[in-house]
Amino acid sequence: MAIQLEKMSVRELAELDARIKKALVSAKEREKAAVKQKLDAIVQSAGLSVDEIAEIFGLSRGRGARKGTKVAPKYRNPDNKQETWTGRGRQPRWLAAKLNRGGKLTDFAI
Cys staple from 87: which of 24, 50, 74, 104, with CB 3.0 to 4.6 Å? Predict the structure, then answer.
C-alpha cells in the first residue's frame, strides 16, 4: 500500500508528520536500549565496573578537579584597583573603554 502524499491535505500531512516523529523517537529509544543491553553484557562478562569503563575512555564521573576553581587576575584598572580581569570571558567595560582610547592590553597587566 503506497501513500499518495500529493493527494493528502495539509492537516493529514501534519498528522502523518507527527506520527512519523513519534515513531522515530520510539525507534531510537528501542535501539538505544538494545545497545545499552549489549554493552552491559560485554562489560559484565569482562568483569569491569562502570568507573573502570569511564577511566578507560577518559571520562570523569562527577565534578572535575578544575571546574569551579578561581583564576588569578591578569589585568587591573589603574584608576580603580578593585577592578580586575582574569583574561577569560568578555572584556570588562573599563578595559574596553581604555583600549578604545588607544591603550594597550599590556599596559594593564599585573
Answer: 74
In a domain, 61, yes or no: no
Q: What is the pLDDT of residues 30-47, one digit of tens each?
A: 999 999 999 889 988 999
CA atoms of 110 and 64, how far apart (whole Å): 29
Whole-structure pTM over 0.90, yes or no?
no
Tally of structural domains, the chain? 2
Domain ranges, residue 22: 9-56
Kindly list the distances between the CA atom of residue 91 and the CA atoms of 45, 58, 97, 104, in Å, as whole numbers in the listed order: 53, 33, 10, 13
